[in-house]
Amino acid sequence: MCHQTVSLIARHLEANGISTLCMASALDIVKAGRPPRISFVDFPLGHTVGKPFDRAGQLDIVRRGLLGLETMTHAEQADLQPVRWADTEDWKAEEWRKGGAGGKDERKPRDGTPQYQTAQDRILAEGR
Amino acid sequence: MEPIEYMRMTRELYESLGHQPYGWLQADTPPPFTALKKPLSQCRVGMVSTSGAYVVGQRAYHYKDDTSIRAIAKSTPTDQIHFSHITENYLPDPRRDPNCVFPIDTLRTLEAEGFVGEVAADLFSCMGGIYSQRRVREELIPVLAENFARQNVDAVLLVPM
Fold this sequence. Notes:
The complex is a heterodimer.
Chain A: H1 2-15, E1 19-24, H2 27-32, E2 37-40, H3 55-71, E3 77-80, H4 90-99, H5 119-126
Parallel strand pairs in A: 1-2, 2-3
Chain B: H1 6-17, E1 44-49, E2 53-55, E3 69-73, E4 81-83, H2 92-96, H3 104-113, E5 118-119, E6 122-126, H4 133-151, E7 155-159
Parallel strand pairs in B: 1-5, 1-6, 1-7
Antiparallel strand pairs in B: 2-4, 3-6
């Protein structure tokens, strides 16, 4: 759903004179929203701009993504970044096992109160 | 090597759970296009991440179509960036290294290198798991657009989770 949201934001900004580049790991969802420019990173969700603590890899991904702003000269171009999450594609089968038919609904309840990462965060933000 | 078909995956999951299918956005018109007016090395670049990032001390996001945003100063220490997002199952790595979905160190480095002219003083986040496309359009986007216009950015990097 995040990928749908970025497509909507990008189209609005672009119509108002700001160039945009959408990073993406869910290529089908972002493409359906037809934003102006896409840079696709074929990693599991939660790693759109790099693997944890991989500073060099993170820089390569964001640098290449931003370069799309200069190199994509018409709308609806998508760059497929030359990166791999692992030596094999086994992680994709695992994603299907967890998130496809027979999988588990991992979404949290649609609670209307702030959901802090830690109890301390709540105290610091709300004083309780 | 084929990308995962997340829309089909979600449809099959929802079906197997007895949920109604989600009506994904299918844009029926081509996007607008604004060419970059100068080299990146002279541009002021903004960023929004839909990962639900917040700075310790700020209010966290809620999970019921929260359309609010947080401004996060680019000078914020990385370990002060925490996350709340309805798909919390994707957060273990971002919670260890925010740069997986909120590229704050990455952008600081690219600014220092001169790859971009400048990174806007504040980066933005929202909680992108908003079911209502109408609320994205009517509540989230106008506020974000106003902030980016005020920052006078040339380009915006969008990072979904």
